[in-house]
């Protein structure tokens, strides 16, 4: 049994709600004739969509057949017909009464797999409530994070997840590995009190409940703070309870007979923080020297030759990056909407996918530049000044790196002042990096002397 599959943190359903909100930005794509207006779309029982279907609106009802994947974001999604591919959706409520022949990946407040519904393969979700009705079937595994889960249908594979309360009334062909709350524990935050017309959900008691018809073909592993009754013969394999004991935060025992121990403790923590920061800067710097020593040297020279231009460029670059990180998602949504309007919705997944990758790359690059590269550049500058005073003929980059990393670690760790220094270093270093990349690092050349007549 893989313990990593047990979702000890039982609030993963929040991620599902975030997924639902994100998918609400998906725009309608006309893949077939549909009936409806004001964001309400119904795919009729006699309709067949011979492609993937992407939808965003108020509600979607599928009574017909989608021969590809269904990607949807809405308030309400109901599948009474057939989706021959995957179902990927985010909504307030998602109900499947028909058939999803492949995988189902969803995030919602309430997910209901109705009686006689069929999920061909894996069901993976984040939600407040999950319910699989009696007579329903899931052909693969169920992986979930939820406030509560009621599993009354049949699952061919394993069930792995976490919820405040998990109730199994049906059959599971594989292992069951769940993390649940203790009986009487305070329930998770329920958004329904703030949501008008919230979809109804079943009432599932906290902890693990096994109904009279429950059967587990593999092992049963339960992670909680208490054990629960497991009727004999329910699990064909072994039953194991992994009891979690809340860790009490240990406070340092300074004691009345140890004057000054508190000062020593916090001083030790401060020194440990400095050592960690120094080691991190040194390792990143050594990696840069190994991969791009010439570019690092050019960037340091850029800062030495044009410090104020570096500051100005860094401030502009910082502002542009912050704005871009907020604006790009909106632009992606706008492009997706335009594609839907001009009937090029098939490009929407690619635009959103590659756009998200680009946004992620910008975020990682920006954080790396201001958190590490800028400190290394200015640290190298200070380190070279000191190293040249000690050993004027020294040409190695490593001693200046070590000196600079130590100085950067100390200066940026000083309370209050360290934050100001760190921000200034980020602007100077970011500007020097931008100028170097743009090829504007060369110092100004002297005007040629004019020969005397």
Short descriptors:
22 strands, alpha/beta, 9-stranded parallel beta sheet, 2 domains
Question: What does this protein structure show overall?
Answer:
This protein has about 450 residues and is α/β, with parallel strands linked by helices. The protein has two domains: about 5-245, no CATH class; about 260-435, no CATH class. Helix content is about 35%, strand content about 25%. The chain has six helices and 22 strands. The protein has helices spanning about 15-25, 260-305, 305-340, 350-390, 400-410, 415-435, and strands at about 40-45, 50, 55, 60, 65, 70-80, 80-85, 85-95, 100, 105-115, 120, 125-130, 135-140, 140-150, 155, 160-170, 170, 175-180, 205-210, 215, 220-225, 240-245. Helix 2 (about 260-305) crosses helix 3 and helix 4 (about 350-390) packs across helix 6. The longest helix is centred in the middle third of the chain and has 45 residues, at about 260-305. The chain is elongated, with a radius of gyration of 30 Å. The chain starts with 12 loop residues before the first helix and ends in a 16-residue tail after the last helix.
Summarize the structure.
The chain has 453 residues and is of the alpha/beta class.
Q: What structural class do the secondary elements suggest?
A: alpha/beta
- Name the poorly predicted regions: 1-36, 440-453
**What's the total helix number?**
6
* General form: elongated
Q: Tally of extended strands?
A: 22
Write down the secondary-structure element order. Answer: HEEEEEEEEEEEEEEEEEEEEEEHHHHH
């Amino acid at each position: 049994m893989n313990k990593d599959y047990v979702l000890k943190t039982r609030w993963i359903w929040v991620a599902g709600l975030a997924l639902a909100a994100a998918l609400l930005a998906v725009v309608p794509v006309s893949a077939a004739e549909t009936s409806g207006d004001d964001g309400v779309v119904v795919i009729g029982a006699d309709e067949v969509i011979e492609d993937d279907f992407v939808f965003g609106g108020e509600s979607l009802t599928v009574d017909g057949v989608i021969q590809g994947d269904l990607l949807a974001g809405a308030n309400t999604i109901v599948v009474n017909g057939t989706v021959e591919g995957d179902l990927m959706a985010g909504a307030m409520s998602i109900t499947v009464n028909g058939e999803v022949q492949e995988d189902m990946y969803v995030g919602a407040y309430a997910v209901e797999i109705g009686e006689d519904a069929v999920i061909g393969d894996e069901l993976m979700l984040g939600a407040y409530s999950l319910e699989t009705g009696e007579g329903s079937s899931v052909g693969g595994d169920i992986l979930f994070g939820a406030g509560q889960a009621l599993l009354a249908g049949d699952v061919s594979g394993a069930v792995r997840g976490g919820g405040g309360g998990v109730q199994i009334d049906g059959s599971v062909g594989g292992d069951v590995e769940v993390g649940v709350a203790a009986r009487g524990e305070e329930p998770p935050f329920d958004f329904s009190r703030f949501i008008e017309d919230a979809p109804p959900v079943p009432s599932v008691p906290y902890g693990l409940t096994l109904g009279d018809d429950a059967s587990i073909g593999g092992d049963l592993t339960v992670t909680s703070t208490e054990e629960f009754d497991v009727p004999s013969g329910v699990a064909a394999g072994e039953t194991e309870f992994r009891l979690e004991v809340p860790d009490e935060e240990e406070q340092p025992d300074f004691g009345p007979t140890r004057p000054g121990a508190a000062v020593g403790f916090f001083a030790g923590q401060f020194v440990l923080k400095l050592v960690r920061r120094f080691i991190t800067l040194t390792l990143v710097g050594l990696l840069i020297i190994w991969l791009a020593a010439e570019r690092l040297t050019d960037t340091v020279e850029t800062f030495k030759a044009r410090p104020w231009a570096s500051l100005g460029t860094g401030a502009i670059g910082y502002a542009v990056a912050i704005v871009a990180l907020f604006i790009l998602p909106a632009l992606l949504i706008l492009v997706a909407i335009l594609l839907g309007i001009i009937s090029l919705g098939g490009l929407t997944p690619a635009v959103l996918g590659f756009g998200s990758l680009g946004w992620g790359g910008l975020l990682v690059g920006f954080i790396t530049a201001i958190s590490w590269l800028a400190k290394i550049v200015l640290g190298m500058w200070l380190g070279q000044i000191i190293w040249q005073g000690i050993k004027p003929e020294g040409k190695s980059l490593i001693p200046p790196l070590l000196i600079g990393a130590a100085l950067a670690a100390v200066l940026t760790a000083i309370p209050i002042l360290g934050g100001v220094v760190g921000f200034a270093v980020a602007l100077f270093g970011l500007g020097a990096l931008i100028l170097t990349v743009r090829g504007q690092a060369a110092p100004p050349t002297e005007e040629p002397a004019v020969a005397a007549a």
